[in-house]
Amino acid sequence: MKEVTTGNHAVSYGAMLSRAQVIAAYPITPQTQIVELLSNFCATGKLKAKFLKVESEHSVMAASIGASLAGARAFTATSGQGLALMHEMIHWAANGRLPIVMADVNRSMAPGWSIWTDQNDSLSQRDTGWIQLYCESSQEVTDSIIQGFKIAEKVYLPVMVILDAFVLSHTSEVIDLPDIKLVDKYLPPFKARDMMDMKNPRAFGGLVTPDFNFELKYKIQEAMNQTIPVAKWADREFKRILGRSYGIIEAYKCEKADTILVTSGTITSTSRYVINQLHAQGKKNVGILKIRMFRPFPAKEVVAVLSKAKKVAVIDRNIGYGVGGIFCQEVKAAFGNEKKHPEFFNFITGIGGRDVTPKDIQGIIDYTETHKKPKEDIIWVGLRK
Amino acid sequence: MRNEIPLEENLNSGHLACPGCGGSLSMRLALKALGRKTYLVLTACCWSIIDGPFPYSAVKIPLMHTAFETAGSAASGIRAALDILGKKDITVMAWAGDGGTFDIGIQALSGAAERNEDFIYSCYDNEAYMNTGIQRSSGTPWGAWTTTTPESKGEQKKKIMEIMAAHRIPYAATLSPAYPEDFIRKYKKAKSIKGTKFMHILSPCPPGWKTSSEQSMKLSRMAVESGVFPLYEIENGTKYTLNNPTADFKIKPINEYISMQGRFRHLNKEQIKFMQENVTSEWQRLLRKLKYA
Ligand SMILES: Cc1ncc(C[n+]2csc(CCOP(=O)(O)OP(=O)(O)O)c2C)c(N)n1
Ligand code: SF4
Ligand SMILES: [Mg+2]
User: Fold this and answer.
1) Last residue in a domain, options A216, A242, A268
2) So what's the ipTM on this one?
3) Which of A270, A384, B18, B30 has the fewest CB atoms within 10 Å around its CB?
């Protein structure tokens, strides 16, 4: 069924189609519409779920953890400050191996107060053991929530589905809402591997001595390793049953590219627009590598695409203060032991919700093509100096 | 008199509590009353150690350890899951210390109580952060020594029961492991009521109170008899019922209770008199509530 929907409502539809059973939520701009629509679904019986209106995001995640451990499919959504407040429980969800799915609407961290997008909120959670999927369109958002549960319930790690504030969360587009019967076929009811169970009473999350803890953490890394093939499988299955696929990364028009832009989120769409125009004009030496899955980082896949290029321009809507763009760090690290690597250019742009326009992308391409090497470690785009 | 203490044991021996720990005896009694159809939520506190390290557990029921401040929220999540999964007959009990309840967890607790979530919240109150080595909490009484009140605590104990009563939850009670029949009866009553139930248990702690372990039950009894920790119930936030064993609404002087505890050793006569005045006035306040409820 075709539906005109915002990125936020695309999240709500994804959770509804996935038949989430417990939704704990707390409002924060720009996420609020997600939970408003979900609360409406619950109130009208469109979704048979318990909607918990808890008193903070910290409690949101604690309640989601409790619900998941007791055997329910748990979903929530947050943004910026809310995600930061959850941080302790973000670790808890992953270390507890709970297949919770959460949407994060990227929001710049305060101060000063900002409701606009950049990725520092979600990227601050990159080492917690959550799988992270960055989305480009509303369609991808709905589909990624559904895929998120499929992946999470296979590898027992939580999944964060990430979308840009306003640029995606509040803009409308037509999406194809999957038939729930097909979603049911793709995503059967959740049957927890380990859960609180009277027939097999066990303790979860208690004191763990150095004698065991190392191994428990090792297993999370093992699950992360498994996640890459599992996510590819989940995407293939999605294609088979629901007719769409995204890949964990996407090489776009890279066949003849000697310069490749590395993008995530909505900057990808803007870049596609520019690249399409260039290719239409016969300039086919520039392509895009979209990174959809950031955790686990698909290093092998990224290297396979980028090693064919002479120059790589990584566009970061985030900053690891004292280092540079976070995607750029990861891309460079992926080449760590490779003998040859392309020249890397790190562009930082769009922080705090500043618009990233086709002109900015064209500027990034021009800079990269006209310089043998970057003149600075960080090339700021759209910054007023 | 019929023995009203169930024989059923849901807490194994071999747990890691100190000898004379009021918290472990209280858990034993609570689980006797609630039975095996109970899910337990434990926050960071002495009990996260008492239960034993991975892969062991001292209780015979499913147990979720959770972060310090999340008893109210984690229990809400479990309740929601059980309800949607059709397992409504399982009781959920959150169990936290005074620190986890009066201080860091009060937001999640207040949220759960305001929503009237259907679970039992138990606070075993040993009147300080014992897990981390005896630091003051807002449940620590005036005058007590702790490592962060090296002279003497200058503030009064927070009136948690009044805070919970102000939420108008269906049931709140004070309990003492020295009165096991009363203890069991209250847990059974809590189990039969839908909504948020708050159980406040005074739990002697020999290392934290600087007492000898064989005196814990005596101290528990003295706390009740002296009115330092009277036993009562509050229904719907307004209906108070006194269960104190003391006759004629009389309380004993606090002197002996205070003098038995090393944490109060530094107090002079004047200070003990000040404490007595406080206890007496709080007791009278409680009696007035009984009358006018
Ligand atoms: C967020 C957070 N802050 C601090 C701690 C450290 N901590 C663990 S238990 C505890 C004290 C617990 O006190 P209480 O709730 O009274 O329980 P008790 O140890 O006395 O049984 C503290 C401070 C923690 N686990 N988490
Ligand atoms: S320190 Fe106190 S509360 Fe903790 S186990 Fe020992 S006696 Fe019990
Ligand atoms: Mg304590």
Assistant:
1) A242
2) 0.96
3) A384
